[in-house]
From TrEMBL:
<comment type="similarity">
    <text>Belongs to the anti-sigma-factor antagonist family.</text>
</comment>
<dbReference type="InterPro" id="IPR058548">
    <property type="entry name" value="MlaB-like_STAS"/>
</dbReference>
<dbReference type="GO" id="GO:0043856">
    <property type="term" value="F:anti-sigma factor antagonist activity"/>
</dbReference>
<dbReference type="InterPro" id="IPR036513">
    <property type="entry name" value="STAS_dom_sf"/>
</dbReference>
<dbReference type="InterPro" id="IPR002645">
    <property type="entry name" value="STAS_dom"/>
</dbReference>
<feature type="domain" description="STAS">
    <location>
        <begin position="3"/>
        <end position="102"/>
    </location>
</feature>
<protein>
    <recommendedName>
        <fullName>Anti-sigma factor antagonist</fullName>
    </recommendedName>
</protein>
<dbReference type="Pfam" id="PF13466">
    <property type="entry name" value="STAS_2"/>
</dbReference>
<dbReference type="InterPro" id="IPR003658">
    <property type="entry name" value="Anti-sigma_ant"/>
</dbReference>
Amino acid sequence: MSLEYRIERQGDTTTVVPSGDVSLETVDVLREVLRNAVATHDGGKIDVDMGAVTFLDSSGIGVLVAAQRAAAARGIDLMLRDPGPIVRMVLEVSHLDTVLVR
């Protein structure tokens, strides 16, 4: 399992695009990428485009929730965008689809 990512910036929006599985084995990559994005972003939005994420476990959910809280503390709106069917199901089951998804 692996997790790759790219970061796109346009105006006041930073988009983080992870690709692959977000699991206990790969979650540290996502944690560090999101921590960096929040730390270096001044206001505006951070979108996490989940369209290429093929798996999401509870460790990934924890990182996403923590990143959203850290962003909110800095006045940044961090939300998920375009989750695929598997990720959307995980978010729905955990009742986070209405909290994390734009």
